[in-house]
Specification:
180 residues; alpha+beta; six-stranded antiparallel beta sheet
Length: 180
């Protein structure tokens, strides 16, 4: 304890010989507001791009070549959306199984994830005679996909409804992929 007090006394006395006033920094001059360049817009990530493109595609036919019947053109429409974001990705993919295999084998562009997020791809590939489906999340719950009724891209599922319909009712697997 005595050693501590001697140490403290020496520290205090050092400041007696070198008196210093607390430095008052002019914070606004030293640390200005964040630097902003006029008209600069940060580039979109691929996830942001696909969300934007998916929203723009609402009510549109994203499979205009009709390679698959309108009620089965979800993979064709989604592959065309992905192709707009990643030009190297094939377009006009007709089957959910083929789309799933392409996404799964492209770790440069897609990463498997466990929870939905904006821009994530959701695929429930066909199993036997049970038709699959695919879409893209525009937020953490809402999914845009091809409507089997109209053949147009619509905001027609939430994640919980997707699970009920494709996993519980149809017995399909659900795969989520983050677009890189």
């Amino acid at each position: 304890m005595i050693q501590f007090l001697k140490w403290l006394w020496n520290k205090i006395n050092v400041y007696r010989f070198f008196p210093q006033e607390p430095v008052k920094l002019p914070l606004k001059e030293v640390y200005p507001e964040p630097f902003v360049v006029d008209n600069f817009i940060a580039p979109e990530t691929n996830a942001e791009k696909i969300v934007r493109i998916a929203k723009e595609s609402l009510g549109k036919d994203m499979s205009p070549k009709n390679l698959a019947p309108s009620e089965l053109s979800c993979a064709e429409g989604l592959s065309n959306l992905i192709h707009e974001v990643i030009p190297n990705f094939p377009f006009d993919v007709v089957s959910t199984i083929d789309l799933f295999n392409l996404v799964r084998k492209a770790p440069k562009y897609f990463e498997p994830i466990l929870k939905p997020e904006p821009g994530a791809i959701i695929i429930s590939p066909r199993i036997g005679e049970q038709a699959g489906h695919c879409g893209v999340f525009i937020n953490s719950t809402a999914i845009v996909s091809n409507s089997s009724i109209s053949g147009l891209m619509t905001l027609n599922y939430t994640y919980s409804i997707w699970i009920d319909k494709f996993k519980v009712e149809k017995g399909l697997h659900i795969y989520l992929y983050k677009i890189l």
